[in-house]
Amino acid sequence: MKKSILLLGLVSIMFAQIPDAPTIYPKGEVGKMVKLGEDIIMNTNTHPLTKEYVGNDLKCTSCHLGGGKEKSIGTFIGTAAAFPAFSKREKTVQTLQDRINNCFMRSMNGKRPIVDTEASIAMATYITWLSTDIPMKMNEKKPVNKYFTKTWPGSKQLKPIIKKATHDNYKNGMNLYTNKCSSCHGADGQGIGTFPPVWGSKSYNTGAGLSKLDKMASWMKGNMPLGNPNLTKEEAIDISIYINAQERDAFNLKDHLLPREKMGHYNSKVFEEKHTVESNFKAFGLDVNEIRGNK
Ligand code: HEC
Ligand code: HEC
């Protein structure tokens, strides 16, 4: 058998384990909530129920492709079956609503919506629908479902490569970005038309999953270029280094929580958390100024 056919076979076996997203919407009030949730996930930054909580030009579907219905890295198929789950970040057991609402502070560079408001319930109902018939599983270590991460090259594989990065990786990442990404995301990273920005204040901040070099490389390898993900592990790492070495908003948890009287209960034991572009590189033993070639 040809190598490519064998590979195709292997890939389809890997993806075969992720069931299809349901297509039949529930009836009545539940169906209405599922559709409202889907609408919010597809239009988060402009939807009247969520726009005030979003601080950039992204929508949930910008990273959870097809609103999480796609079987690529970032799928919501199976997500609801993984909650409640323990999170090392908050040091508490997180509900699905907590997990969803926390994304607003980081990936959406905004504020955390209030649990049990209509928007919060709608998003949780939609995401729960996408786990129809998937067996429930308790997650004792991290709040991420098994399908979500199934196809990620593990951080164990990526970390040692990232730790050895130099300015050459940055330069290679820049060339790859110019050739494979800039036609949609712009040479200045600010996006073009409906194609979203990948750096600057209009994109995710330094507390987001994608601002971490290993997570970005994994996500990108599975999803970009859109419709034709074709990067090698090394290429994905170099582009991740290039994109994440650009300026974006620093993350200070306190700036993303609503005032106490509005916030409701914040299910976390951690109230101090800060990240910057510099600290995200330092986490891999790298000096971002050296990587940029400024030293
Ligand atoms: C900039 C990209 C990005 C955007 C935008 C984004 N997310 Fe995420 N999301 C991620 C990444 C990356 C992870 C995995 C994070 C990790 O492992 O630390 C994740 C994880 C999640 C999870 C856990 C998934 C699972 O299966 O366990 C949920 C739920 C989630 N996001 C909901 C949302 C919602 C709702 C929105 C919109 C309000 C949103 N996300 C916007 C990147 C994004
Ligand atoms: C054909 C246009 C196209 C190309 C080429 C493309 N993207 Fe995207 N990209 C998109 C779209 C569209 C989305 C949002 C997904 C959606 O709305 O369905 C996206 C989302 C993203 C996101 C998450 C959201 C954000 O803005 O931060 C990142 C990161 C990203 N792309 C990086 C890349 C990289 C790196 C490349 C090159 C390897 C690339 N893209 C190539 C169209 C494209």
Give a nutshell description of this structure.
The protein is mainly α. Helices cover 41% and strands 3% of the residues.
Question: Could you explain how this protein is built, in words?
Answer:
With 295 residues, this protein is mainly alpha-helical. The protein has helices spanning 3-16, 28-42, 96-106, 118-129, 146-150, 155-163, 167-180, 182-185, 213-223, 233-244, 260-263, 277-282, 288-292; strands at 85-87, 92-94, 251-252, 274-275. The termini are far apart. It has 13 helices and 4 strands. The chain has a two-stranded antiparallel sheet. It has a two-stranded antiparallel sheet with strand order 3-4. It has 2 domains: 18-150, Cytochrome c-like domain (Cytochrome Bc1 Complex, Chain D, domain 2, Orthogonal Bundle); 155-252 and 275-292, Cytochrome c-like domain (Cytochrome Bc1 Complex, Chain D, domain 2), CATH 1.10.760. 41% of the residues are buried. The chain is globular. Strand 1 (85-87) and strand 2 form a beta hairpin. It binds heme C (2 copies). One heme C binds next to helix 3 and helix 9.
Radius of gyration: 19 Å
Number of domain modules = 2
Strand content: under 5%
In the CATH hierarchy, what is the superfamily of the largest domain? Cytochrome c-like domain
Question: What is the tally of helical segments?
Answer: 13
